[in-house]
Amino acid sequence: MNKVRQIGFSYAFLFPSFILTLVLGIYPLGWAIRYMFYDYKGYGEAKFTGFYNFQRLLRDTQYWESVVNTFVYAGGKLIITIPLCLALAVILNQKLKGRNFLRAIYFMPTIISSAVMAVVFFIIFNSYNGILNQYLMKFNIISERIDWLGPKHAMMTTILIAVWGAVGNYMLLFLAGLQNIPNDVYESASLDGANKRQQFWYLTIPMLGPVLQIVIMLAIINSLKGYETIMVLTEGGPIGKTEVMYLYVYKLFFPTPSSGTVVDQQFGYGSAVGFTTAVIVGIITLLYHMLSKRLNKMQ
Amino acid sequence: MKTEAIPYTNKNMRRNPFREGGWGGRVLLWIFLLATALLILFPIVVTLFGSFMSNAELTTGGAILPSVWHFENFAEAWVQANFSRFTWNSLMLSGVTTIGTLIVASMAAYVVDRMNFPGKALFVAIQASTMFISIGAVVIRPQYELMIKLHLHTSLWGVILILISGHAYIFFILLSFLKGISRELDEAARIDGCSNAGIFWKIILPLLRPGLGVGALFTFCGAWNEYLRPLVFTMNTPELQTLTVGLSYLRYGASAAVQTHYMLAGACLSILPLLIVYMIANKSFMQMTAGSLKG
Question: Is residue B159 within 8 angstroms of chain A, CB to CB?
């Protein structure tokens, strides 16, 4: 009797969480899985077309360009972020005057809205009257305006902005990992005459290994997924140079007049693209996981 | 010959400022740290000071500090650019979302940690999977259609419900805090005749306060900074826009070029409240992120 009551009570308490997750979390996934086999524009009849959407996807050069862009974007972001954050974490893990203050500064971008900062970065980077060009010209570093958001530099600019937003988070994750390494390991190493550089390569990196792997995995997933900043800053432009996978998916569902060649909302096709993108992210995550496992075994 | 080698290296080390622990290394280290800090702070400083400049000074001046402090930027943005409305909407959205998330997540976390029932493992697995599977903006469409059916698409309640439904992360945070609360207390209360709900309300929730605090901080920030869902849900109802959405509309508005100072004043309104809380409680902010998915 008591047990039955406990189960009843449990279900009652779980109900709000369960129903919300089911209706707003799981059902939309099912919706997408259904409509990716349909030709459905959001109005009129939804027509079953089997795997047509996926055939179309294979021929959709705009999408595959956005996939390549995503890899460039994520790769660029990771190549700068991971070493930078590791360096900052190692430095700030030592006894250093003002280290808490510095940590607090580096972490600041993490708490600010990326959409809001994208507006600010637009004001900073826009070529015509952007603040950065004003400064650079005032101090005679450049003589002509640099088109930071133009076709040539837009990707680099978005990568730098992404790094700006990510530094604090990954620094902190690395710090958490570093704090788990017991201090006496370093003490005995320095007694044995190992210098700081040797300690870093032969102690810190191997002992940080598991954390490093998880953090890099998180970073990969996050950089493949992120598109909010780009959406506000460049809308994927100019001429699709900063279009990333999930931004393309967004545009198929919520096209805006300025969103380029995607003019018609296409829910069926959009679902197929969204699903494929999730699979791509999953495959990359899996590949990375396998690779890091193999590296582990080699050691 | 051997004895000569040692004094030689010693002398060399004393001369080289870039040897380990030398002043050269320290200087380089600090240049690196301060340069990084400067780059991180630059956009924030631009936002803060720029919001007091005139539009002309912002777009041509190349100054860091405003020559004249235009406090009226804020008053004008507040009234003319409708930021009073946006701020209120943001506050209401974030406040209700935070309360709702904490209630839903703490109830679920309580029974998952303290009770036994069939389907528990499945429930936890579903919660975990919702944190990692992402098909992007696709899900917003069915969510929107659902809200139309519930007649919630013309208010912020639809967005609030959707944001509360994403409570998996808070659920896991609270679960880890619950594991640290001794079970002896609820056993004692049970023997005294306290009901399950009574134990949750009178014993668990007060002891869970640190966890709820971290969860509240996290949820509030997330909702305050949320962009996509308020954007999509307020496409036909501009009076419901939040700060993030209202601001991004300024960026694409026809008069964007003459409204740079409003944009920065609006950006200030959006980031300042969080920055102020952050200055008071940055330790708690950092605590919650070790394990977060943002970035």
Answer: no
